[in-house]
Write a structure and sequence with these properties.
The complex is a heterodimer of chains A (267) and B (344). Chain A has 267 residues and is of the alpha/beta class. Chain A folds into two domains: 1-81 and 162-267, 3-Layer(aba) Sandwich (Rossmann fold); 89-160, no CATH class. Chain A contains nine helices and twelve strands. In chain A, a hairpin with a 2-residue loop joins strand 4 and strand 5. Chain A starts with 6 loop residues before the first strand and ends in an 8-residue tail after the last strand. The mean pLDDT of chain B is 87. The longest helix of chain B has 39 residues, at 2-40. Chain B has helices spanning 2-40, 48-55, 63-95, 108-122, 128-150, 156-180, 186-193, 205-221, 223-229, 233-238, 243-265, 271-283, 290-310, 318-339. The chains are: A alpha/beta (267), B mainly alpha (344). The interface between A and B is large, with 42 and 33 residues. Chain A: It comes from Anaeromicropila herbilytica. Chain A: Keywords: ATP-binding, Cell membrane, Ion transport, Iron, Iron transport, Membrane, Nucleotide-binding, Transport.
Chain lengths: 267, 344
């Protein structure tokens, strides 16, 4: 495995129209690790991820990949290094699993060079990693939400990027599938050394499955580090305005937050 | 194990490619059969042999005139216009991920019609100027719809609703033009507006062919890009596609096809709208739809024209027949969408 490229954000300010959402964020994505961006709704998690993936052009600041500005890298070349799975993408009607996953091979194809052996192999490998080889010729419309999400991740895998960004890959899934998807992403990270950055809603699953956490609050990066360093009662109070107790996850040993509401709290 | 998996996947790809090839070949054959039938039938029926001899350039009394001057231009314009409508319609539908997003539903065709009717009735022009005006107005309407639906955040559903509104407005303009026109001109304009292959002339074929060939080819060559665009803006950019540039090229080419074809035969109802979905059903969705949709478009126009000419005592223009075929499908589609809880 060659060395994984390093993705950096340099003081980026980003937003839509005139509304600034990210207010000067600088960060270095830990290479070969799983990082999770946490924060309350509308704090700019998604915007940050989309800016990192060049879907949103920052108002100021720059995104660097191995110290090169990403908007200076040819788009197909960049697409072979940096991939993003958006939140709830739309499935083209009637498409089969293998065809959809095969579309992840677009950055490797040119006008003259069509579909080749390498593309087959990449699709096959992606389907195997996601455990959906037997669904290859099924129509994506017929699949359950969890299976569908695996197909989308397989498409991102067929793209064979060193860095994979995922925008809430577990949202709308039952808890069983949430854990399954996070396990598969961990496999991918360990087997291929793929750098993974994702936005997750569940803080406890974030703490368990991540090596590194970025905590956002009102468009600013207010804490970063390993889950043990970052997750604390103070931080949760600040980020989510929620009082909680932090205990040790009995299964993984990672920090685990237990929210305190107004009711059902023992003396 | 690994080898087996590869063959399952490969088998699937191969199976789908074979299906595409077989269906597309059958569509080509059907198109050829219909085209030939258009040449055989008429006031006088000529045997195939005579038709072939005329096409080879032999001078046969009666037949040369009937086939060379009347039937051949009628057939060729139907064929080319059908291909143009089919390709343009399916491109719009795929790009906007909605079967309702066909140029004849969202007002682009009406835009061209307004220009053509204005040129014919008010300015009393004909020929290539009408075509140019139709293309320009078609483009303006397409841009207008896009800009109107861009305010706030862009969504395909919004674009379609705005398009339907624009379409209604343009229809009103056409009605106004018809009311103002001299009585003598109205029947001609009406026949044109319902989409008709009557009175086609050989002189308009070369340019039409060139337009269909060039812009059809551009869209065909962008087939792989269109498939990526179909995944949505975000994935398209992530996969390294220059989404804006591709979209502009596809829209421009489609509008050229639709507007030019409209300027020649008038807006043949629902062909652009029907061709893509029918082709999709036949070849299996998710594979490249452009060429089959073009062929289905041609089959619809030629088939409908044959029905309109020979199935009834009265002769109907082609657009009436396609209109009758298309409206039930539009209703079914709307009902289905409603059940699914609206479009995305």
């Amino acid at each position: 495995m060659t060395t994984t490229p390093i993705l950096k954000a340099n003081n980026i300010v980003a937003g839509y129209d005139n509304k600034i959402i990210n207010n000067g964020i600088s960060l270095v994505v830990p290479s070969g690790k799983i990082s999770v961006i946490i924060g309350a709704n509308a704090c700019g998690k998604s915007t940050l991820l989309k800016t990192l993936a060049r879907l949103i052009k920052p108002i100021s600041g720059e995104i660097l990949l191995d110290d090169k500005k990403i908007n200076k890298i040819p788009s197909k070349q960049l697409a072979r290094t940096l991939g993003l799975l958006p939140q709830s993408p739309v499935v083209p009607e009637g498409i089969t699993v293998a065809d959809l996953v095969g579309r992840g091979r677009f950055p490797y194809q040119t006008f003259l060079k069509g579909w080749g052996k390498k593309d087959y192999e990449a699709v096959q490998e992606a389907l195997e990693i996601m455990g959906i080889t037997d669904l290859a010729n099924r129509s994506v419309d017929e699949l359950s939400g969890g299976q569908r999400q695996r197909v989308w991740i397989a498409m991102a895998l067929a793209q064979q990027t060193d860095i994979l960004l995922l925008d809430e890959p577990t949202t709308f899934l039952d808890i069983t599938y949430q854990v399954e998807i996070l396990d598969l992403l961990t496999d991918l990270n360990r087997k291929r050394g793929t750098t993974i950055v994702m936005v997750l809603h569940d803080i406890n699953l974030s703490a368990r499955y991540s090596d590194y956490i970025f905590a956002l609050h009102k468009g600013n990066l207010i804490a970063e580090g390993s889950p043990d360093e970052v997750i604390s009662e103070e931080l949760i109070q600040k980020v989510f305005s929620l009082e909680c107790a932090v205990i040790k996850d009995p299964v993984s040993g990672s920090p685990f937050i237990v929210p305190k509401g107004r009711h059902h709290v023992m003396g | 194990m690994t080898k087996n998996n590869l063959t399952t996947i490969q088998k699937g790809y191969l199976h789908r490619r074979n299906r595409w090839m077989i269906v597309t070949s059958l569509l080509v054959i059907l198109t050829l059969i219909l085209s030939t039938t258009m040449l055989l039938l008429g006031n006088t029926r000529y045997p195939l042999e005579v038709v072939l001899r005329v096409l080879m350039g032999e001078e046969i009394r009666g037949a040369s005139f009937a086939i060379g001057t009347i039937r051949l231009p009628r057939m060729l314009s139907g064929l080319l216009v059908g291909i143009a409508f089919g390709i343009a319609g399916s491109t719009f539908q795929t790009m906007l991920r909605n079967p309702l997003a066909s140029p004849d539903i969202i007002g682009v065709t009406s835009g061209s019609s307004v220009a053509a009717v204005f040129c014919i009735l008010v300015l009393e022009l004909s020929g290539s100027i009408v075509s140019i005006a139709a293309v320009i107005t078609g483009l303006i309407v397409a841009i207008l719809i896009y800009l109107l639906s861009k305010g706030g955040s862009f969504s395909g559903g919004k674009l379609i609703l705005i398009g339907i509104g624009v379409q209604a407005m343009l229809s009103a303009v056409i009605s106004y033009l018809l009311l103002r026109a001299s009585q003598y001109d109205v029947p001609g304009a009406l026949r044109w507006l319902s989409g008709s292959l009557n009175g086609m002339q050989m002189s308009s074929i070369p340019v039409l062919f060139l337009i269909v060939f060039i812009f059809g080819l551009v869209i065909l060559l962008l087939g792989r890009h269109l498939k990526i665009l179909e995944l949505g803006e975000q994935l398209a950019i992530t996969l390294g596609l220059n989404a804006n540039q591709t979209r502009i090229l596809l829209v421009l080419s489609s509008v050229f096809l639709i507007a030019f074809a409209t300027s020649v035969t008038g807006p043949v109802a629902f062909v652009a709208f029907l061709a893509g979905p029918i082709a999709g059903r036949l070849i299996g969705n998710g594979t490249s739809n452009t060429l089959p949709a073009g062929l289905v478009g041609a089959i619809l126009v030629l088939g409908a024209d044959l029905i309109g000419q020979y199935a009834f005592d009265t002769r109907f223009p082609v657009g009436i027949i396609t209109g009758i075929l298309g409206s039930p499908y539009l209703l079914i589609l709307l009902i289905q969408m409603n059940r699914r809880g609206g479009s995305s």
